[in-house]
Design goal:
This protein is about 5% helix and about 35% strand. The protein is mainly beta and about 140 residues long. It has a five-stranded mixed sheet, with no helix packed on it. A three-stranded antiparallel sheet has the order 2-6-5, with no helix packed on it.
């Protein structure tokens, strides 16, 4: 699962895809509203086994929502596969309905600091809503 925030600045994503492409399409579907937003990514770089890219999410992702992430290459978009179209001039004006899946995952949007690997900082569902009262001295044992 990928954790993003409600930030208005570019957020970076690192994924291990099925295939490495520099240009692809990213669609994000909100599980609560079932609305899908599509972004064109053109600055992806392969760093080791990861595909790293940044994106500005507009509209801003709502907090505490889950999203379905789908990265794919749509060959019907012009210049997506320029080399293929450049070699075969007969398919320049034809639609190609192929879509190649690159990656699928879930996204959770929160503004809480979550760092489970290094600092054991976990997501708290009731953060700020429930306050634990610890005013009693429970060290006294009744004989």
């Amino acid at each position: 699962m990928i954790i993003l925030s409600t930030s208005t600045i570019a957020q970076s994503l690192s994924v291990i895809p099925r295939d490495y492409f520099g240009d692809f399409t990213m669609s994000i579907r909100d599980d609560s509203t079932n609305k899908t937003k599509v972004y064109q990514i053109s600055d992806a770089l392969q760093v080791g086994n990861y595909l790293k890219f940044t994106n500005i999410f507009n509209p801003i992702l709502p907090e505490n929502h889950f999203f379905d992430l789908h990265l794919y290459v749509d060959f019907s978009v012009w210049n997506t596969n320029f080399n293929l179209w450049n070699l075969d001039t007969q398919i320049w004006n034809l639609e190609d309905a192929r879509i190649e899946d690159i990656f699928r995952d879930k996204i959770f949007c929160t503004d809480q600091d979550v760092d489970q690997l290094d600092n054991n900082v976990f997501y708290k569902l009731n953060k700020g809503q429930y306050v634990e009262y610890n005013g009693f001295d429970n060290t006294y044992i009744v004989p």
